[in-house]
Amino acid sequence: MESLTNYYAGIGSRETPLDVCETMIEIGRLMAEADWVLQSGGAERADEAFEKGCDLAGGQKRIFLHKEGARGNRSPHFNIPAEYFSIASRYRRNWDKFSENSQRLLARNVLQVLGYPGDDVGHPPDDPVKAIICYTEGGKLKGGTSLALQLAKDTLGDAVDIVNLGHPDYRNATAQEVVDQVLGRGHIPPAQMTLF
């Protein structure tokens, strides 16, 4: 049975341009008004912009932190399942050379896409995201966001829509156009959804 909850990841570079952050705030608000649940990571710029928009509309959110109280965020979602470190390590060479903090940040990105796995005491697994709205410079696979994008493509394939606001095709898109695309009401050609 398919879940009635629609999750999306609102994520991106800590160097997201401020004008794109303003668009992300509006996207976060519109997605919350459409009853989509935000999954993000509490990082500077992109993550906090989506969260701010979600909060403006009183929307539901799950902010996955790499450690308790990161950046003053009070989210209760800071426990990262051990198997998510293993998943994250598949997307980074020389995993053992990353600091513990960096490994936690990368494993946190797995949570943003897949949510929590089920457990052996009866909690079912979360549904993965149905969409990722993000920013990477030039729409390229860069930084921690690239791990989330590659993981989504590998594990979810065509079941996830990816809109990268850094891609040249989205440079002039309005927040409403992006949200309409994700909600299936848009007119952005499908070729522009293919960023890999």
Comma- or semicolon-separated keywords:
37% helix; 5 strands; 6 helices; disordered C terminus; 196 residues; 12% strand; globular; five-stranded parallel β-sheet; alpha/beta
In order across it, which strands form the biggest sheet? 3-2-1-4-5
CA-CA gap between termini: 30 Å
Q: What is the 3D form?
A: globular
Classify the beta-strand content into a percent band.
5-15%
Helix content: 25-40%
- Uncertain residue ranges: 189-196
Q: What string, H for helix and E for strand, traces the elements in order?
A: EHEHEHHEHEH
- Calculate Rg over CA atoms: 16 Å
Largest pleated sheet: 5 strands, parallel
Query: Structural class, from secondary structure content?
Result: alpha/beta
- For the secondary structure, the number of strands is 5
- List the total number of helices: 6
Rounded mean pLDDT score: 91
